[in-house]
Queue: 4 jobs
Job 1
Amino acid sequence: MEEIVSLDTFQPFDGMMKMFPHHNFPYFNCDYNLLLTLANYFKKDELPILNNVISIYRFDKQKIKTRGYFKLEVLDLEDGDKILEEMGISIRRKSPALDTLQDEIINSISSGNPISIFIDLFYQHGRDFYYNKKHGLHPVFVYGFNLTTEEIYTVDDITEYRQYSLPFSEFKLSCLSSEHVKMPNYFWEYALVSPADHDILNNKKLAQKNINKFVENMCRYQNEITESLNNILLLAENFELVITNETIIETLSSTIYRKCSEKYRLNTLYKYNIDHINAKHTLDSLLDQIINDWKTVRIYSNKAIMSKKFTGEIIDKCIGLLTKIYTNEVHFNNHFYLMLKAASL
């Protein structure tokens, strides 16, 4: 008989996967996937997490030959810890010695508390970019332990965001490297704080409070977001230089999944009666068009890179698509803010 200690209901956040079935996009970045996975496990509303992000287009001509010349930047409004605290989830950080790590994991899980443990990616099989090449700390959820086979159960994004199992001996190796000087308290335990206090505000009131806060934040950044759309035109202007940069595909891919994250949030917001002016149809079709056009720019760029033929025809097609994306983003932005302002009246 195998002896297993496990949080049976602990599942990786899969909202984006349900919306985009053939992709494994994170919600904006892996930190948000982590927060949404916790909200899911502790049966908390995901709205405060979804609404913590503002995304802004950036273009920096100085970086055209390197990285980061263009991005849909993610701005966090509040620290992740603060959001969890407001949701009634506490974090206890500690630094167990390696020989007590197994006991600490089993104690936390037996109490119903998931853990995230920061590991050094240098030791993680399957991470081609890091394994035996490059150091870097990365949080991994631990939700179970098999005492018979000495395996540990994790949620991670090695190849995709899902559950994994691996030998504890291998996992242990990655837990205390010289990298951990940067983060001595590498073991974070999450628990519910006296749930009673947090259930006093009924759900409807709480949701409305979250919506109001979201509208307020978005309006505070309205000018910056609107002005940032011009960076799409700057990308178009410089596309001939950019298309030969080997990071172009990665740059376009991260823009695509961040736009998909905006779509996920928008679909969640509709459920909270935020659309008083029936903007949904217009917003959805504009956003779908924007996402598809970014994907087409990526297809053309990929073709040019693979064939090493950076022809005027391909560059012109991409510039045309980027101009169209800009126009649709301006329309989307106008309708989006009309909807938000109507919701706040």
Note: The mean pLDDT is 93.
Job 2
Amino acid sequence: MTEDERTLESLKLLRESSAWMVGVQTAIFGFLITLLNSGQLKLGSFLIKIAITAFGLSIVCAGIVLGAVPWVLSRKSMPSSVQQAPIADWPLVNKISIGWVSGFQYLAFVIGLVSLGSAVIWKQIG
């Protein structure tokens, strides 16, 4: 497998995982809205607010990553590492790498899951 093929495969996996995470988080938002409408969700819960904020940030980061993938593919030369490729070739954002944004996306996703799980354990849902 050549280096370009590895880079292309990495970009495909990154795109799929980001799209999958957006789908899961959208389903979680739908679940929380259903609970809110049925009165089974404590609206003032700090943990629920953290979870919603973290999932929202993760979705924004996933959008940035998904928007950066075509840009990386359209470059004249493929980057040596997908993680180090900038999200765009614009003056202010060319220092921000796909790896950092993707890492923050996963971190926010995990924080959202932990907050949501803690809210369930402390009976703030249901």
Note: The radius of gyration is 18 Å.
Job 3
Amino acid sequence: MKKSFFFFVCLVVYQTALSCDVCGCGAFNSTHGLGTLAQGNRTSIGLNYQYRLYKSQHPEVFGNGIEHSTDYFQRLDVTGQLRISRRWQLQLSLPIGFNKHVADDTTSQKNGLGDPTLMVNFFLFDKQDSLQTRRFRWIVGAGVKSPVGKFTQPNDVDLYLYPGTGTFDAVFQNSFFFQKKKWSVVQTAQYVLRGENKYQYIPGSLFSASLFGQYKFRTWGIYAGTQYSWSGVDYLNRKAISSSPTQGQVLTGIVGTSVQFNSWVIQGNYHIPIAQNLGDGNSHQKTAFSLSLNYFFN
């Protein structure tokens, strides 16, 4: 049977909820991809690249001036989905981070393996009409992020450049997919409940939600939508840290395209900030985009 539901591949997975652990919104990358929604419960492997740039300004610790800084975040995720049965699926993400902070007179950089996430997804509904012109999917998932990546103590000035947090985190997600002929609509949401690391430090919990619409042509599609991301307050020794650099929220518009050739799917999107309040208003997302390549097994 010809596969007609391929265009939303990885629209959200490791792409739209771009994580920022340094400048405010730490919304974790959604681990439930729209490739799952579009392609169904199929085994796949993939690579995803993200780029994010933030500009910040802060009062100098000593002196009366303003310190300006730029943060660059690049991340490559090795991803995989494994079909277990008609309704059950395993999903894995293994990230590698390349993070750099450039201030007026200093440059700091941290690279390395991040914290992998393992999810279990369950297809509550997967229905289509006899003509295969309408389809509805509802998928829920839960998993854990493991502390594999390198991390540091809370008072380290480069804390948010490290690729790991040192915490076990619980991840919960919910996704809806509706397709009618050449039009598709997708809504996803994810919540990450942070744990505590060996320094008694708890990064802020994370939430993200996205809504997209797409129109498909013969072998490619274009899509647009919005995403809201929120990151909560950090805690040290069970006490809230005021003015946490990871606290904040951002609303972005997203435009993108996806192309399929045989079992391969290439997808890319670009983020357009609409409203944001990151790092107590001191940080601003300037540029964010992502590219992905995925292969789906028959």
Note: Residues 34-39 form the longest helix (6 residues).
Job 4
Amino acid sequence: MRTMLLRKNVIAFACAGVLLLAALSGCTTGPSESEQAQQANRDYMAQVNQSMESLEAKLGSFIDAVSRGDVVNMRTQADNAYAALDELAKIEAPEGLEDIQTSYVDGTNALKEALDDYIALYTEIESATADNPFDWTSYDNRISQIKSKYDEGIGLLQSGDNAAAAKK
């Protein structure tokens, strides 16, 4: 009889332990929706930051090629910059950050146009001949337009950064 009573106590104790473990495991479920959203935002901004760093280096190489008037290297460096711009544009924004991503995409498109315009201008200059000279009277105006488009792209990227900083 005593062993039967002991068995009942052991079984009751084991059941209580199982119930306690079940209750505790229910309390330790994964991160909350708010924590998941914050992590998604941090991951997004980390990807954006990495793309921006890559873009900055590639634009620096492009600007160096422009300063040397090296059209072939401008094309190469522009293609490298386009890859960084495309990476930035492809990043999927989490819910609530879509407006920031729109600024980044618009900025990348403006920068691509500016780079293409720089290359077109310098290609025209390089390919000018005595029979078909470059029209230097249009140079200042074209450079101004290209710079304006470039500044617009940089401004849109900065606008995205500012909007992201405001949401922290």
Note: DSSP finds five helices and no strands in the chain.
